[in-house]
């Protein structure tokens, strides 16, 4: 049976650059899965996917021209319906056999076996395998339909729809064109290379010749990963030649890789006078608008040079460089103009312009929000014994840059420009730094705000959002989180834990609630919902950090609201769990919890005069003995030492349960023993619910 490499390529207009890698991988994976499902792959050696600005392609080795024949067994119908009392075929069975093209005398060869609770007839037949010629177009069409394309377009007079117009379809099995029609195109072996550097249309000899032919004759590097690596190699080498560095460039590298087919890196420059503009503005202008790679000196300061990734490789690139320099200059001039104009007005003077800006139609304007942030940030700074006036001032000005020209043009610079304008207004570095960093952390791994003032403003910003949207019933659902509340919750938790800041989460939520006008927050029970949401985020955060699930569950069962104490409590529970006494104490604690669940009403303190058995007296005295030491450790936040002291109770606890009947018939004795267990549980479960450690 003939096997050969298979090539599938769609030649298109320029594909969306940010989606290109995903389109390429998905297209190839779906085709490979389709081939595999039809048993057309003789030996699974994987596949290679290709994605360039104007093409999606896949090559698969060891693809069969036809799949081998196979036995197929299908259920016909239950025996009680298929056969009469004498075992002869019923009319219902004969009708079904006729519909399927099965001879009536084949019934004698049907297999009878149980199908669930009823016996059924099964028919086994040999079936020819699929042929590549018959199914490949269908597989490709299914792959096209499965692509993550939010918006389709039509072109020409046909009915085909795709993310961009498609001009050629190549289906090659070895050196043979596989017939097929996809997107109104018939298959061929002809492709095209680079728009300007290729020799024109290229006839591919074989599927295996695809990549080398495109490289040699088409001047295209079709492999996305290899093209990315080549661009990165050139960028790093050219930056080194310039005595410069590239800073962060991974996201831009992916985008540029999706824009060029034959990459070549050139050096451009702009007038040094533009460096008077904050470098973040210039960097964003070059990266976002022009797709240039800015260069930096050893101290991280922007240089007046940049790298251009061109789609052309020519001996004299002076025109390319000059053209790019000519294009970037007006962009930099715009940035300078915005900066100079913005500095003519103080942040304070811009506050009235926040009045008409709607934050949310149920939560008021940005100015109303600023008033809440000002109050809340000052209160939080006070709890931290920080500069309350600086925190309130930073919160008051934190959103003023939203109505500047620069942030209007580049929303990504909010906060960053606020810092520059605050310094220009002589607000002081503490206030300016807090304005910039109050959005942090913006994503996993992002830096935290530094200092009590910055932390107070950042917490106020995130808590106000969480309380506001939960208070009007706008909770995240599934993967939808339009207001970034999960990110805000994680930001609050990271600031409190990693700070660490000695603040109570429940008190912070209550303080944030107090800043809203009466009657504005109408959702029932939203504060409890918000705390549940925060604890769920905390659970995920700790799990991602590598903590064991039972340790997390034990600690979180007590709903600790001092997040700064969480790491120490986790360490204590983890250390306790490793002790030889841990398993028995956890099991005993679980037993105690189950017993106490059945108790109705309050229990008094245990009465020593009512103790009867030696085992209960011993446990009582051990509890009285260790209680002060445990309380001392807890007060000093020495949670590991507290749990290690409690581990010493194991012998007394084991003996108690071996020798004492807790649920004694005499009411006072029973109540006193339950009171002793309640006292023991209260002592043991101050750090975590140790019963959660029991299997």
From TrEMBL:
Keyword Glycoprotein among record annotations: no
Q: Which Pfam families match?
A: DALR_1, tRNA_synt_2f
| Listed InterPro entries | DALR_anticod-bd, Gly-tRNA-synth_bsu, Gly-tRNA-synth_heterodimer
Domain DALR anticodon binding intervals: 587-686
Alphabetic keyword roster: Aminoacyl-tRNA synthetase, ATP-binding, Cytoplasm, Ligase, Nucleotide-binding, Protein biosynthesis
Query: What does it catalyze?
Result: tRNA(Gly) + glycine + ATP = glycyl-tRNA(Gly) + AMP + diphosphate
Q: Where in the cell is it found?
A: Cytoplasm
Q: E.C. number, please?
A: 6.1.1.14
Q: Which GO terms describe its molecular function?
A: glycine-tRNA ligase activity
Per its UniProt entry, what is the enzyme's top EC class, as one word?
Answer: ligase
Residue stretches spanning the membrane: none
Grouped into one coarse class, the protein's main location is cytoplasm
Report the SUPFAM superfamilies cross-referenced here.
Answer: HD-domain/PDEase-like (SSF109604)
Query: What do we know about how this protein assembles, alone or with others?
Result: Tetramer of two alpha and two beta subunits.
HAMAP family of this UniProt entry? Gly_tRNA_synth_beta
Protein family per UniProt: Belongs to the class-II aminoacyl-tRNA synthetase family.
What name goes with this protein? Glycine--tRNA ligase beta subunit
* Species of the source: Aromatoleum petrolei
